[in-house]
């Protein structure tokens, strides 16, 4: 007589514990679990990013035009609420350039946009000094955009970095 035939034999319960560590690193194989990414949605998102990156330099140019327009108005303003408002607008546009540039592989534009974003709201500088530093960033971004430079290495990239660093070091 086997255990399966004996109705009085104790029942065996098998517990299958989930591997919590696999879940933390995204290795669950079930697709219906909470927190799992739908592969179709991932592919769809990658397609959107790919399409957006096709026109990345154009998008950088559009945001750069906005920065230039606001900078022309801000550069002549004295310290005050209006200047801070304009600085915040440039901050937002520079942040947009940084995000799209980094996403699409325009590392040099992302570098200068992030630096511009940080310097434009800095109010501890003398106005003349801040104007020079911000203008150096904008000039670098214009050059990057016009020449469609992606890589943050190379002779042109190093020269641009050096130019902006010189302005920062001199007028900081």
Helical content, roughly? 55-70%
**CATH class descriptor of the largest domain:** Mainly Alpha
Shape: elongated
| Beta content | under 5%
Please count the helical segments.
7
What is the strand tally? 0
Look at the helices and sheets and give the structural class: mainly alpha
Query: Radius of gyration, rounded?
Result: 27 Å
Low-confidence stretches: none
The assigned CATH architecture of the largest domain is Up-down Bundle
User: The CATH topology of the largest domain is what?
Assistant: Four Helix Bundle (Hemerythrin (Met), subunit A)
| Biggest sheet character | none
What string gives the helices and strands in order?
A: HHHHHHH
Q: Let me know the average pLDDT.
A: 84
Counting structural domains, the number is 2
Q: Calculate the terminal CA-CA distance, rounded to whole Å.
A: 91 Å
Description:
24% of the residues are buried. The protein is built from 7 helices and no strands. Helix content is 68%, strand content 0%. It has helices spanning 20-24, 39-54, 56-75, 81-104, 107-120, 127-147, 155-171. The protein has 2 domains: 19-54, no CATH class; 55-171, Up-down Bundle (Four Helix Bundle (Hemerythrin (Met), subunit A)).
Helix/strand layout:
Blueprint: H1 20-24, H2 39-54, H3 56-75, H4 81-104, H5 107-120, H6 127-147, H7 155-171
């Amino acid at each position: 007589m086997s255990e399966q035939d004996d109705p009085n034999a104790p029942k065996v319960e098998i517990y299958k514990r989930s591997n919590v560590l696999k879940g933390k690193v995204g290795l669950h194989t079930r697709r219906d679990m909470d927190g799992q990414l739908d592969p179709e949605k991932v592919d769809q998102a990658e397609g959107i990013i790919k399409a957006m990156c096709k026109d990345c330099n154009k998008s950088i140019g559009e945001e750069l035009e906005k920065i230039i327009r606001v900078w022309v108005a801000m550069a002549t303003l004295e310290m005050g609420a209006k200047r801070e408002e304009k600085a915040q607008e440039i901050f937002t546009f520079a942040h947009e350039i940084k995000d799209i540039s980094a996403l699409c592989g325009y590392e040099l534009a992302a570098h200068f946009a992030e630096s511009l974003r940080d310097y434009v709201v800095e109010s501890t500088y003398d106005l003349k000094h801040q104007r020079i530093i911000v203008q150096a960033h904008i000039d670098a971004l214009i050059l990057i955009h016009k020449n469609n430079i992606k890589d943050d290495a190379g002779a042109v990239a190093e020269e641009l970095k050096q130019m902006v660093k010189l302005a920062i070091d001199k007028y900081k």
